[in-house]
Design a protein that fits this description.
Elements lengths: L1 E6 L25 H21 L2 E4 L13 H11 L5 E7 L6 H14 L4 E6 L6 H4 L6 H17 L5 E4 L4 E5 L13 E4 L3 H10 L2 E5 L4 H17 L8 E9 L3 H15 L18 H9 L22 H7 L2 E4 L1 H14 L5 E7 L5 H20 L9
Parallel strand pairs: 1-2, 1-11, 2-3, 3-4, 4-7, 7-8, 8-9, 9-10, 9-11
Antiparallel strand pairs: 5-6
Helix pairs in contact: 1-12, 2-3, 3-5, 6-7, 11-12
């Protein structure tokens, strides 16, 4: 199992300065520019430490949000490409259907891949529903735009014999000529997030790494769908490095200290409810069959977090429940190792742990100490983790 260090680069000092939503709607006046600068430098310093400690690194992107200041994913990736030495660098990713110029995305990715000397990995992401209101794009055909952008970017990566033209339904270029070309020909490793069996099967057909985000034991169904489709398409079982899960993790020397850190980290997860309800499912964002299935579940998400026994995650879960659910792994090094290995066995094995090591109100010194413990006392054992036996 590989660990990818991740933070959303939040502006947590502003969470208590507004009573309303933390996404889309908060006034930018609650942010103090010098404090923003300090936080952005802090988050970069923690990633650089992660590189020294042997972690790979992941960067995401959201907009107009106090929970994530990573509004320009590829700018952060470019900094890390130059400043880090060893880590693989995962962009997960750029909401392509919300961007008007996919060729520019290809050019930015090529610069990053060359700066890093071939350490880039890239995820094609749909983006959160509420970000469509910021992009001013039409949600009704966003996935058509998404896949056309996907195809254009891959062709730009693969073409080395001069310019070509692109006359698509959404994007038109008379002259596409990617210079410098991508370092990892024909393209870097590709990822695709999945929150449903359908999207997992799509990732399996394409052979991309599939990533499940904070959905607890629902990930077992995600990975089962992926494995089934991968085997049908490619004629061989999917290797563990094709599977990724994003969860939170914090480590401390004692259980009492770890509990305090976990409560600070979990504060990020509790911000999810502070999003404008009217922006969470614009018409056309979700497929018709997905909306119909949600209605059959009382309007809720049919792929929401579940416990190992299939029951829904409680509304106000304890830290113990969060660990059992595979949402937040916390404790001493031995506790965290045991929690991760238990979850790993229950979902059938996963090769990549996208590890949110900082979030909420977790301070810099606490984050650094946790990272060092994770690197020295947990990660070496996870690297040797064998393929789990089938869970009962």
């Amino acid at each position: 199992m590989r660990i990818w260090q991740f933070t959303e680069q939040s502006y947590h000092p502003g969470w208590d300065k507004t009573d309303g939503p933390l996404r889309i709607m908060p006034p930018s006046g609650v942010l103090d520019p010098p404090e923003v600068s300090d936080l952005l430098h802090r988050y970069l310093d923690e990633w650089l430490l992660g590189d020294e400690l042997g972690f790979d690194l992941m960067v995401n992107e959201h907009h107009a949000s106090l929970t994530c200041m990573s509004a320009v994913n590829l700018s952060t990736m470019a900094i890390l490409a130059r400043q880090t030495k060893k880590a693989r660098l995962l962009s997960l990713g750029v909401p392509m259907a919300n961007r008007m110029d996919p060729l520019r995305i290809a050019e930015e990715l090529s610069i990053i891949d060359n700066l890093s000397r071939g350490r880039l990995e890239f995820g094609f992401v749909k983006g959160s529903a509420w970000e469509l209101f910021i992009s001013n794009e039409n949600p009704a055909r966003m996935m058509d735009r998404f896949w056309e952008a996907h195809d254009l970017i891959l062709k730009a990566f693969a073409t080395r014999d001069g310019p070509f033209s692109w006359e698509g339904e959404y994007f038109n270029y008379r002259h596409v000529n990617l210079i410098p070309p991508i370092y990892q020909a024909p393209c870097p490793p590709m990822w695709l997030p999945a929150s449903s069996p359908d999207s997992a099967r799509l990732a399996g057909r394409m052979g991309y790494v599939v990533a499940a985000f904070l959905n607890g034991h629902q990930a077992k169904n995600t990975f089962a769908s992926y494995r089934d489709e991968y085997l049908k398409t490619h004629g061989r079982p999917a290797a563990l490095d094709r599977l990724a899960y994003l969860g939170m993790a914090v480590v401390a020397h004692s259980e009492a200290e770890a509990r305090q850190r976990a409560e600070k980290l979990y504060a990020y997860y509790s911000t999810v409810s502070r999003s404008p309800a009217a922006t969470m499912n614009p018409p056309g964002y979700s497929p018709v069959h997905a909306n119909a299935k949600a209605l059959l579940h009382g309007g809720g998400n049919p792929y929401a977090n579940i416990m190992a026994d299939g029951t829904p995650l409680p509304a106000n879960p304890s830290l113990e429940v969060l660990a059992d659910a595979g949402i937040l792994f916390w404790g001493t090094p031995d506790m965290v190792y045991d929690q991760i290995t238990k979850f790993n066995a229950l979902v059938g094995g996963v090769g990549n742990f996208l590890c949110m090591t900082q979030g909420g109100y977790l301070g810099h010194a606490e984050t650094v100490d946790s990272l060092k413990l994770l690197a020295t006392e947990v990660y070496p054992r996870l690297k040797e983790l064998a393929l789990p036996q089938a869970a009962e």
